[in-house]
């Protein structure tokens, strides 16, 4: 497998894979978004009942690492296919989003919660940068 690993090349391979199986009629934005959600849920399922410490170590177990890697690949495959169908340049969209988040959430030395206490958690739901 000497395929170049860049986004357009991967999107071409995915499109060719679907075309060879006559799957294009099913690859519309609604179906691809639904499939993306399902695959993301399958990835989440692996972590569902793990502690944060256990979740940080999932790649140490070869079987679990294989499952995680496969689900990440499935999520990325459907995301790239969705972007292709909608004409979205995934890397440009991500870069633009990071730019907006850097302006929206300027870095501070000591983030605080609304009550003034220190909050160093990147999962603060009140100001999560992926919104």
Description:
With 131 residues, the chain is an all-alpha fold. It contains 5 helices and no strands. It has helices at 7-20, 29-47, 52-56, 62-86, 90-104.
Which whole number gives the mean pLDDT? 88
Q: Mind describing the biggest β-sheet?
A: none
Amino- and carboxy-terminal Cα gap: 37 Å
The percent range for helix content is 55-70%
Instruction: Please write the string of helix (H) and strand (E) elements.
Output: HHHHH
Q: Please report which band the strand proportion falls in: under 5%, 5-15%, 15-25%, 25-35%, 35-45% or over 45%.
A: under 5%
Number of strands: 0
Uncertain stretches of 5 or more adjacent residues: none
Quickly give the structural class.
Answer: mainly alpha
Please report the number of helical segments: 5
Comma- or semicolon-separated keywords:
131 residues; mainly alpha; 5 helices; globular
